[in-house]
Specification:
Blueprint (H helix, E strand, L loop, with lengths): L6 E7 L15 H16 L4 H8 L1 E2 L2 E8 L8 E11 L3 E9 L5 E9 L2 E2 L4 E2 L5 H6 L3
Antiparallel strand pairs: 1-4, 2-7, 3-6, 4-5, 5-6, 7-8
C-alpha cells in the first residue's frame, strides 16, 4: 500500500436544483458531489475507468456508499469536495470530505467502494487490475 494517500479537491457551487423543499441540499445529491471529486481524482492520476471498460471489458460498480451529514448546505454555498484514495488493492476505496470555502467547516464525510467486474460474464475479480493499481501507487 502507498505510504502517502492520493487526494484531489474540486470546487463546487451548490446549484438551486440540488435543494429540497426545506431549501437545503437533498441528501442524495451529496453522492453527486462525491462522484465529481472521485472522477477528478482518478483523472488526475491517469485512470479513466470508462475507456478502461472499452479496452478491457472490466467495469467498476460501486458496491457500498456511506455519508455522514454534519452541517446542511444551501444554494450558492461554495464548497470543496476532497476525494482521498484509501485503498486500491482488492477494491477501490475513496474517502470524501466536503467543506465550505467561507469558513472551512466540514459539512459531510463519506466513502465509496468499487470492485472490478469482468464483462459480459459479470465475474467479480478479487483484485484491482495491476495497471490501475500501478497508476494509483499500489
Amino acid at each position: 500500500m502507498s505510504a502517502d494517500k492520493k487526494s484531489f479537491e474540486v470546487k463546487i457551487s451548490v446549484p438551486f436544483f440540488d435543494l429540497d423543499p426545506m431549501q437545503i441540499v437533498w441528501h442524495g445529491n451529496y453522492l453527486n458531489y462525491f462522484e465529481i471529486a472521485r472522477a477528478a481524482l482518478f483523472e488526475h492520476y491517469g485512470v479513466d475507468l470508462y475507456s478502461y471498460y472499452d479496452r478491457e471489458k472490466i467495469i467498476f460498480p460501486i458496491i457500498r456508499t456511506s455519508t455522514k451529514h454534519i452541517f446542511p448546505l444551501r444554494h450558492r454555498d461554495e464548497i470543496i469536495c476532497k476525494a482521498t484514495l484509501a485503498d486500491a488493492n482488492i477494491k477501490l476505496v475513496v474517502d470524501f470530505e466536503i467543506r465550505k470555502t467561507a469558513d472551512n467547516s466540514v459539512c459531510a464525510r463519506g466513502r465509496t467502494e468499487q470492485v472490478a467486474v469482468k464483462t459480459p460474464e459479470m465475474e467479480t475479480l478479487f483484485s484491482i487490475p495491476h495497471d490501475i493499481r500501478e497508476l494509483l501507487g499500489y
